[in-house]
Specification:
Chain lengths: ~240, ~240
């Protein structure tokens, strides 16, 4: 890469809509992380906020849903065609299809799971056990396990009775109908992970990131969506 | 239009970035105005959130800036190509270029200024004077005047000393640096319009819409951005 290309500000392409609020939340984070004095200093972002992508939950958990990858690939290619210099996808579960999407485009595709695992390891070099607050789908597809395995970190989940409630909370956030009681359930799931020996927690669901600052825990907490936003800003802005 | 086409949910294209926060604010409003139980019920939105559009203020107020229309036209055409069924633009000032953009695309382009004027007239059929809280550019380009003239409504602006402060407030919101003092200035501009005889107020700047719920006034208030969001949801969802 020449210096000229390296120092050009990049256009971000967001494969969004999983859910749409999580995409808006990421856009908001990008705006607030970018140092600006006027509009023009902000980063150019192309977004396909498409809530019609076939359900990842139906395909991965219920096992009876349409394959969502072709739709995501079409979105990724559309964003590339529109001028995106690199792609991102604010949905943890959807990263199950990361490789298929990455192979279908000619621009780099930032991996939120990889960058989160790498960040946790660099922030806590001696960590052995990490807890995930996430959709139940992640447990089935073992999304974070390979990335943490290379750092010798074990991935843990809340006990089933807590995990069920985390999943219900995620569905409520998607429908914008979360209750105070569900927030308590969410805190209990975090406590359960701490009791199991987790030394840190990852908010590994972009719907949970939307309500992220409401989580109370004494463990170091890593919000995958926030780490993604930071990486986007750092990648998009020209190197100093 | 056949019933089949009429009853298909439509994809929205947002010509955004003026500023980027105003675009995110509109997306947020669309999400919260859409009745949903899961992701799939939300509206598919394509967004070009492009803060690199040449400055409308420089072109219209300072008179020495690059013409921003070609950039906006390119964005509009890109969104159409991506599959947008109709276009919207969450920036009042940019509506100065409305006709040039509308002529360059083959899909309908919703006019925020027209729909706001029509809404005010239908909400207050006997209104004679409407006050604008907006960028100073609007006063120069007479953006709202033709649309209100057909309803026999006079458009009013805050006195110059107040208008200057509204403009400074808008610039601060763009830089996310607004102060409590500036919010007071903003309220005083609203009071000035009331003293001049305005019977209603339009928040006619998407940056002011971002902080819209903070405006204190006894006059009926119409937020152009919110009216746009309501029209988008109503246009995008299939008719019952």
């Amino acid at each position: 890469m020449t210096n000229e290309v390296k120092n050009k500000e990049k256009v971000v392409g967001i494969i969004g809509g999983m859910g749409p609020e999580a995409t808006v939340d990421l856009m908001h984070r990008i705006i607030h992380l970018t140092p600006v004095t006027d509009d023009i200093d902000h980063i150019h972002v192309l977004v396909d906020n498409n809530p019609k992508i076939p359900s990842r939950i139906k395909a991965l958990i219920e096992g009876n849903g349409e394959d969502p990858a072709p739709c995501m690939i079409k979105m990724a290619q559309g964003l590339e065609e529109q001028g995106a210099d690199f792609l991102v996808m604010p949905c943890n579960t959807a990263h199950h299809y990361y490789s298929r999407i990455a192979e279908a485009v000619n621009v780099p595709f930032m991996n939120m799971v990889e960058l989160t695992a790498d960040h946790v390891k660099s922030a806590q070099p001696n960590i052995k056990k990490i807890g995930l607050l996430a959709s139940s789908a992640l447990q089935i597809i073992h999304l974070y396990e390979p990335w943490f395995a290379k750092h010798n970190v074990e991935v843990m989940y809340p006990a089933p009775e807590h995990q069920e409630k985390v999943m219900a909370f995620i569905c409520s956030v998607k429908a914008n109908k979360q209750t105070a009681e569900q927030l308590v359930d969410y805190h209990r799931a975090a406590e359960d992970l701490a009791a199991q020996g987790a030394e840190g927690l990852i908010i590994a669901c972009t719907e949970l990131s939307v309500v992220g600052d409401q989580l109370r825990t004494e463990l170091p907490t890593y919000d995958a969506s926030d780490l993604l936003a930071k990486s986007i800003v750092s990648e998009a802005l020209p190197s100093k």
